[in-house]
Amino acid sequence: MNERGANAAATDTATIAYVLRLGDDALIASHRLGELVSRAPQLEEDVALANIALDLLGQARSLLTCAGRMEEQLTGVLRTEDDLAYLRDEQQFTNCRLVELPNTDFAHTIARQLLFSGYAFELYAALRDSADDTLAGIAGKAVKELSYHRDHAARWTVRLGDGTRESRERMKAGLDAAWPYTDELFAADQVTRSVSEAGTGVDPARLRPAWEEFLAQALSDAGLDWPETAPITGPGGMGGRDGVHTEAFGYLLAEMQHLHRSHPGAAW
Amino acid sequence: MTAEEALLEEVRGLAAAVPDPEMPMVNLEDLGILRGVARDAEGTVTVTITPTYSGCPAMDAIRANIRERLAEHGHTRVRVRTELAPAWSTDRITAEGRRKLAEHGIAPPTGAAPAPGAALVPLSVRCPRCGAFTTRELSRFGSTACRALYVCESCREPFDHVKPL
Ligand SMILES: [Zn+2]
Hints:
The complex is a heterodimer.
Chain A: H1 6-10, H2 13-34, H3 43-75, H4 81-86, H5 106-127, H6 133-161, H7 165-178, H8 190-198, H9 208-222, H10 247-262
Helix pairs in contact in A: 2-3, 2-8, 3-6, 5-6, 5-7, 5-9, 6-7, 6-9
Chain B: H1 3-16, H2 28-31, E1 34-39, E2 45-49, H3 59-72, E3 78-82, H4 95-103, E4 106-107, E5 135-139, E6 147-152, E7 158-162
Parallel strand pairs in B: 2-3, 4-7
Antiparallel strand pairs in B: 1-2, 5-6, 6-7
Residues 127, 129-130, 132, 152, 154-155, 157 of chain B line the site of zinc ion.
């Protein structure tokens, strides 16, 4: 292990916050897709969305466990993956707002998946070179899975965009609704500056050109225009990374956390 | 062979033979998910495995089954460790594993695992029932994370294919 390897990185609060963000992104993206189990438009799609949700949940578990252990080295108190997923309040979640957007209809789900998995693919491709060995290991697995996820979303974008007038309008509406939340994915702040300097994380702006290239190809194959809806920020210019979320997020958390909070330690 | 080497070889053999919970025709060795066995000074045996997919729900069952199998043979101080890097790939499935999959109606992965981001164009997948190459992908996501759903245009039967990863 090199000098700035896992142990040095583990005592750094910015790295903990960074890993927690990635874990929250994966967890919430997974939960939204999980809501569609038994409700997808066709059986094959039901299975596909469930499989993608499961991959994301696996990534979330690894990332939250990793963040919890790093934090323990700093504070001496361990929060497990379950503590982090079920016992934090809305303002303590730092996922991007894109992944919490409601499913609304299938095209909205596909639009969200297209934008998010396109971004997450580039992120994990870059994080394979992280100076933190654990994070690099998680990224090495995640990037292969994201490769399938973004391909799934891109294929559906083409089918819907290049389908009937109805499917095209819906795909366009889905993209317009999700687009205002994409700037947040590439915004730098104290945390990203610190981790990109330490080599444990990446400067998100660096991921944007490749993401735009992927998106331009998918939209062009689908005969769709580049979305032009204006960015939406929360109060004071804040967003998901600051713990400021959309209205839909509280309802998501209530459903996700209800069982665990009502019956602590429930297992079956 | 020292007694220590013999013991590790026995443990390795026992762990290797543990069947996969979702595809019981293949074992941990066939799938290439057994990474190694070791024993520390206190006598605790550590078996290292790697998951196929991040969210593979079979991992808990695999861990429990390894411990159970080893306990049956008197090894009770056992730890099962999960290692992510280097990431598992379908290239790790052994020739024996591929043969067993095909024999049980599951088409093994074709060609080498794609580099992440490379176009996901599947090579012709051979029907495990009739041997025809005229097969078609129905869904890239099948009954488990590692499988895609195919149909054979020749014998008309649907089948699972372990997709390259
Ligand atoms: Zn056939």
